[in-house]
Amino acid sequence: MFQHIQKTMDHAVVLSVTGLTGPAGPAGAQPLLDALHFDIPAGVTALTGDEGTGKTSLLRLLAGDLTAVSGSVSVAPDDDVFWVDLQGAEHDQATVQACWDALSPRYPRWNEALLQDLADALDMTQHRSKRLEMLSSGSRRKVMVIAALASGATVTLLDQPFAALDLKSIRAIKDFLREAAEHPSRAWVVADYEAPDDLPLASIVHL
Fold first, then answer.
1. pLDDT value for 25
2. How far apart are CA 202 and CA 185, in angstroms?
């Protein structure tokens, strides 16, 4: 069952989903997500659900990384959505710095100074020249999270950003998101099994 729980914060709508069904699969296969309708306001939104409910698929649909069967996703004021998945083996030979260098030209508001601050806070500065295959799962996730938070995107999609991370890094990311929660025109969507109870949330989308 799909629910959208709107919190009391009065934030402008940044992303709207209308009748979204997907992702597209083999002919005759039932789409994982069916006729979703919801708005994402500025600030931090939690996307929650059990294993297999479609959290990652929904993020990829919002980013245009997967093809929908029907419905639409609109982003205001532009189509600037950050999504990246560096977990696949095809990225193993890339260095941390090469990943960031490849992503930065895609986002006009990329903040290199913020990236450096985040790299320091998450203890990743020393790993910039390492290949992804040399990193732990937690450090590999940090590469994605740091890029996401530094991207300056209108909508930033984060898939389980705290998984396999040390407590210091989790605190640093949550400190960032607490500040982001007050932004009037940008949105951060945090997908996880449960909504974080220590972040000010503009809304919750539950699958």
1. 83
2. 12
What pLDDT, on a 0 to 100 scale, did the predictor assign at position 24?
Answer: 87
Give the residue from 78, 81, 155, 142 showing the smallest Cα distance to 115.
Answer: 142
Residue with tokens 């193993």: 92
Q: Which domains does the chain have, with CATH numbers?
A: 12-206 (3.40.50.300)
Q: How far apart are CA 25 and CA 10, in angstroms?
A: 37
The string over 71-110, giving b where at least 16 C-beta atoms fall within 10 Å of a residue's C-beta and e elsewhere, is bebebeeeebbbbbebeeeebeebbbeebbeebbeebeeb
Residue ranges in the chain modelled with pLDDT below 50 = 1-8
Q: Is the distance from CB of 192 to CB of 46 less than 8 angstroms? A: yes
Closest CA to 20 of 63, 78, 52: 63
Cα(94)–Cα(102) distance, integer angstroms: 10
Locate 41 and state its tokens: 């306001």
Please, where are the H alpha helices in the chain? 55-63, 96-103, 112-121, 137-150, 167-180
Determine the distance from the C-alpha atom of residue 187 to the mean position of all C-alpha atoms in its chain, rounded to a whole number: 10
**Distance separating alpha carbons of residues 167 and 171, to the nearest angstrom:** 6
pLDDT of residue 180: 95
According to DSSP, residue 129 is labeled T
Q: CA distances (Å), 194 to each of 49, 84, 203, in order? A: 7, 22, 13
